[in-house]
Amino acid sequence: MKLQYKLGIMALGIVAFTSCEKHDPFDDHMEPGQLVPTCYWEVGSTAVKAGEEFSFTGKYYAEDGNVPKESQVWYSINQADESSATLRLCTGYSYTQTVAATQEIRTAQSMATFAHNLATWDGYEFVIVGKVPTSSTLAPVSWMPKVWDQANFDRYFPAQFADSFMTVVKTNLLDETGSFPSALKSTYVNYDGFTNEYMTEINSEFGVNFPTNVEAGVQGKTKSDFWHFIVDTDGKTKRCEGVTAYVSADGEKFNVSYDSLDSEAHYKQGRVEVNRLDSTLNALYVAMGVNPSVVSHLGKEWYAVYKSSEWLNCRYEPSAASILTAVKPEYVDAVNAMLNSIPFDAWVYNKTETNYSVSFTRKYTLDSSFKVVDEAGNVGVASTKYTLDVN
């Protein structure tokens, strides 16, 4: 008898197979108490190249006078996908989204049948040495683009992947804690779509006042020049100069200029340096030099408000014990519209390496088993099962 192969046609990229309910004839022939063939096996390697065969050695014998009919190698096919994207548009904020999914795309079926007369008797049991085919469509898939291909992205990535990624990123960029304000600035500076013409449209639509006279490379007119806020790493002196006002816990506010105080404290009359500040202002001046974020003045504590862009509120928040920078409420809708205008591929484009920080991999594994059927229809199944990686 000839070696018979049964290999179904499998298309690359199939997510699921549709088939009729499988009927396993082995279950109909097995009854409690029946003696089934005893078998065991091993495979030559647990890795196989797509479209090629994997080898195995099977051993078996039948009991109670039963005669073996054939041996079979069965396997199911599992598909493992992993999709990943990393934020690259801005600095100061790292975010990677990964989605992994594994599913059985084909239930276990007999993929190779070996007639009993192909086996040899070694004095103790029958030995069958054979090979089992695989489909070339099971080759691994890897996609890491240098050029954006929306069709491939839609083919490989889950339907809501991009929306989920951008929702997380845009939500965090409006957070006033940690490095998110700096990352928001970086987004504004780095995205080429925020042109003067586009910002004019935003101003008109939302009644806000973003700069529309930005000129790349012109001192005082770059995107970065129009966005200012203070962070702890700037150091005390610089933070002193950035204070524009102080607010108390009960909401009282007074404006202040450290530069003006400093000039008055170091006023030169002739060759003599004279401090022209009164005692109250001098105490404020000294306190700002020690810790500009929190000062004692006029019998209570005051918290600094720092210089920032028109659409930002930068201030020391005592409950957080840190300087926070938030988009002003009247600008939130406009900033959201700006962030919503950025397409997914722009968020993940790596300008330094000139590629896109997205990756997709698809790999297949075969869950295999060895079975022996005797002339009476009794089925023995080897206890050892092997998972083979297809490469």
Task: Give the topology.
Elements: E1 4-5, H1 25-29, E2 38-43, E3 47-48, E4 53-61, E5 68-86, E6 96-115, E7 120-121, E8 126-133, E9 141-143, H2 150-156, H3 161-173, H4 180-190, H5 196-206, H6 236-242, E10 243-248, E11 253-255, H7 258-265, E12 267-269, E13 272-274, H8 279-290, E14 294-297, E15 300-306, E16 312-317, E17 322-327, H9 329-340, H10 344-347, E18 349-350, E19 355-356, E20 358-374, E21 379-381, E22 386-390
Parallel strand pairs: 3-22
Antiparallel strand pairs: 1-6, 2-4, 4-8, 5-6, 5-20, 7-8, 9-20, 10-11, 10-15, 12-13, 14-15, 15-16, 16-17, 18-19, 20-21, 20-22
Helix pairs in contact: 5-9, 7-8
- As a percent range, the share of helical residues equals 10-25%
Shape: elongated
Rounded to the nearest angstrom, the radius of gyration is: 36 Å
The tally of helices reads 10
The whole-number mean of residue pLDDT values reads 90
* Main sheet summary: 8 strands, mixed
**Which stretches of 5+ consecutive residues score pLDDT under 50?**
1-31
End-to-end separation in angstroms reads 32 Å
Number of strands: 22
Structural class based on helices, strands and sheet pairing: alpha+beta
- What proportion strand? 35-45%
Kindly summarize this structure in a few lines:
It is built from ten helices and 22 strands.
